[in-house]
Automatic annotation (TrEMBL):
<protein>
    <submittedName>
        <fullName>MATE efflux family protein</fullName>
    </submittedName>
</protein>
<feature type="transmembrane region" description="Helical">
    <location>
        <begin position="479"/>
        <end position="503"/>
    </location>
</feature>
<feature type="compositionally biased region" description="Basic and acidic residues">
    <location>
        <begin position="544"/>
        <end position="553"/>
    </location>
</feature>
<dbReference type="GO" id="GO:0016020">
    <property type="term" value="C:membrane"/>
</dbReference>
<dbReference type="GO" id="GO:0042910">
    <property type="term" value="F:xenobiotic transmembrane transporter activity"/>
</dbReference>
<feature type="transmembrane region" description="Helical">
    <location>
        <begin position="277"/>
        <end position="298"/>
    </location>
</feature>
<feature type="transmembrane region" description="Helical">
    <location>
        <begin position="405"/>
        <end position="429"/>
    </location>
</feature>
<feature type="transmembrane region" description="Helical">
    <location>
        <begin position="509"/>
        <end position="530"/>
    </location>
</feature>
<dbReference type="InterPro" id="IPR002528">
    <property type="entry name" value="MATE_fam"/>
</dbReference>
<comment type="similarity">
    <text>Belongs to the multi antimicrobial extrusion (MATE) (TC 2.A.66.1) family.</text>
</comment>
<feature type="transmembrane region" description="Helical">
    <location>
        <begin position="178"/>
        <end position="196"/>
    </location>
</feature>
<feature type="transmembrane region" description="Helical">
    <location>
        <begin position="449"/>
        <end position="467"/>
    </location>
</feature>
<keyword id="KW-0472">Membrane</keyword>
<feature type="compositionally biased region" description="Polar residues">
    <location>
        <begin position="73"/>
        <end position="82"/>
    </location>
</feature>
<feature type="region of interest" description="Disordered">
    <location>
        <begin position="544"/>
        <end position="595"/>
    </location>
</feature>
<feature type="region of interest" description="Disordered">
    <location>
        <begin position="1"/>
        <end position="82"/>
    </location>
</feature>
<feature type="compositionally biased region" description="Low complexity">
    <location>
        <begin position="44"/>
        <end position="58"/>
    </location>
</feature>
Length: 595
């Protein structure tokens, strides 16, 4: 495979969500986000390919979204379509809604644990002690499990590239690579969770908090590997246009996790008093482990949705050739540094805030509990939508449309933040929201003073993350995000907060406002880089990478002709003939999506 192929990860994410196909097949295609972008190399001889594969690829055909004739005609033309804001918004919403629900549920699970912990009154420790211990334990856990996550973060780009290049079997190869390397590298990283207590004591935190946090971390060792594999599976199907099954799965387990917390923390409806603090960790471990198990059973065993993009031979180490592993590592390993820096940057602020005392940690944790579900959901969803839509338009060679799509997402972020500001600034609503996290009057009073600074900082940081992880990713320029992280965020955010706390002995409110100011500087730089981008050049580079991908697939020595014919047959299948198969993807009411 060529070097161009290795660098085309983000620029080749080009699913076009076909709203026309959704409208025509609404009753039979409920779970499918239709991928109407076809490889130009596979748009010829479609009748022969379709006939040949109706008999040989029936298992594959049923789980791949059908593309409309309009989509084929569009992709066979080199001239970009006219850009319609209304159509673009519809396409974004078709992708964003299931993703947003999924992200919200995933983040809501963690916030549910914090909410239960913040209401523990067992006479051993105060609620703020438990909240502080939980957030510090999560801090160490996040740093420990971050490096292996680099091996699933690349799946959106790699799987989309495989599907677009007419070699869908490679999507399954990348998934197997991702699961293998994530599992192998996660095992040694989990050892750090056995040493949370001495780590926190070394950082200067009170011993009583360190002891409680250390116990909490040990009960969280169960879920990181199953959760990481679940992420791999979700990204694999998401990139293939199947985000809804994970959405239903996540909705189901959000409720299950709340019930498990109620039972294991407080004893539920029984006379049993529950396990208290460690019950929250046990609840999360059960939820996140079973979440992945149910998703695998539904997608792989029951509906066999993987067959449309799966290598011959199934699960096998023979797919891990030297060339493939080299390409996978070239795209994955650089992410380790970026992810680690982001994790350290976030947790460094937590450590510094810890210098302000137990009350400050607990108040910050309480505010995060009611902020992260919506801000984290908005960030993750908008980054994904920006990357997909910008990459799609650039792949079509339309840099102007990609630029306009990026600004639509920025405007959407602004609107949502205005709405959330109204919710948090109305006194009655603000009290109700913060009381979700804790009922301690002292914590609530302190958290309320932080709300204005939190809102400003959250908005600016959302703009920055959407630019770096969304727009630049879609442009195929991820190096900019790394440079900004190490060259700007390190000295400004972390260094500035450290000086403010350690030298000037500032308070928690000042920390929040300092983060807002640093976010404004970063946002100004990111927006300038987006406005000054050479979108035409980005479009040319994206199309060159797409051609390089197809060449490398044909030169890899694999017999891809049958796979390409199968992919074309599936993409041109008459919607009526596939309606019965698509009905298998109806909402999962028994057990069962999504990051």
């Amino acid at each position: 495979m060529t070097d161009d192929h290795a660098t085309s990860n983000d620029a080749l994410t080009e699913p076009l969500l076909s709203s026309q196909q959704e409208r025509n097949n609404n009753d039979t295609n409920e779970d499918v986000v239709v991928l109407s972008q076809l490889s130009p190399a596979t748009t010829s001889n479609n009748n022969n390919s379709n006939n040949n594969n109706n008999n040989n690829n029936s298992d594959v055909k049923r789980d791949v979204p059908a593309a409309s004739e309009d989509a084929e005609n569009t992709t066979s033309s080199s001239a970009p379509e006219s850009f319609s804001i209304q159509t673009e918004i519809v396409e974004m919403l078709h992708l964003a809604l299931p993703l947003a629900v999924s992200f919200f549920c995933r983040m809501g699970m963690a916030s549910t644990d914090s909410a239960f912990v913040g209401h523990i009154h067992d006479g051993q420790h105060q609620p703020e002690t438990y909240l502080a211990a939980a957030v510090l334990s999560d801090m160490v856990l996040n740093i420990c499990i971050t490096p292996p996550l680099a091996f699933n973060q690349v799946l959106n780009g790699l799987v989309s590239q495989a599907m677009g290049s007419g070699n869908p079997a490679m999507a399954g190869v990348w998934l197997q690579q991702s699961i293998f390397w994530l599992t192998v590298t996660m095992l040694p990283c989990l050892v750090g969770l056995l040493h949370v207590k001495p780590i926190l004591e070394l950082l200067g935190f009170p011993s009583d908090i360190a002891i409680v946090a250390g116990t909490y971390a040990k009960y969280n060792m169960i879920w990181p590997i199953p959760n990481g594999i679940y992420q791999c599976l979700r990204f694999y199907f998401q990139a293939r246009g199947l985000p809804r099954p994970a959405m239903y799965n996540n909705l189901l387990f959000l409720g299950i996790n709340a019930l498990l917390n109620w039972f294991f923390v407080f004893g539920g409806p029984t006379s049993w008093k529950g396990l208290g603090f460690i019950g929250a960790a046990i609840s999360l471990s059960i939820s996140r482990t079973m979440q992945g198990v149910c998703y695998y059973l539904y997608m792989f065993v029951y509906n066999k949705h993987h067959l449309g993009a799966w290598p011959e031979g199934g699960w096998s180490f023979r797919h891990h050739t030297k060339e493939r592993t080299y390409e996978f590592m070239k795209q994955s390993l650089p992410n380790i540094g970026t992810l680690l820096f982001q994790a350290f940057a976030s947790q460094a602020t937590t450590v510094l805030v810890g210098r302000l005392g137990e009350l400050s940690i607990a108040a910050s944790s309480a505010l995060s509990t009611v902020t992260i579900p919506w801000s984290g959901t908005l960030s993750a969803t908008c980054c994904t939508v920006s990357g997909v839509r910008v990459g799609y338009h650039l792949g079509r060679g339309d840099g102007a449309a990609a630029k306009r799509a990026s600004w639509i997402v920025m405007q959407f972020i602004t609107v949502v933040n205005v709405i959330m500001a109204v919710v948090f600034l109305i006194p009655y609503l603000k009290d109700k929201v913060i009381n979700i996290a804790t009922d301690d009057e002292g914590l609530v009073a302190l958290a309320e003073t932080l709300v204005p600074a939190m809102l400003v900082g959250t908005y600016l940081n959302l703009l920055v993350s959407n630019g770096t992880s969304g727009v630049f990713s879609g442009q195929g320029r991820p190096l900019i995000a790394t440079i900004l992280s190490f060259g700007l965020e390190l000295p400004l955010s972390i260094g500035g907060v450290a000086i403010y706390i350690l030298v000037f002995h500032g308070d928690l409110l000042g920390v929040y406002w300092f983060n807002a100011i640093s976010g404004a500087v970063e946002a100004a730089i990111v927006l300038y880089l987006i406005m000054s981008s050479n979108w035409t050049k980005c479009a040319d580079e994206a199309r060159e990478r797409q051609e390089a991908s197809r060449r490398s697939a044909s030169e890899s020595g694999e017999n891809t002709a049958d796979v390409e014919d199968g992919a074309l047959s599936m993409a041109t299948t008459d919607p009526e003939s596939s309606s019965d198969d698509n009905e298998e993807e109806a909402p999962l009411t028994e057990n069962v999506d999504h990051e």
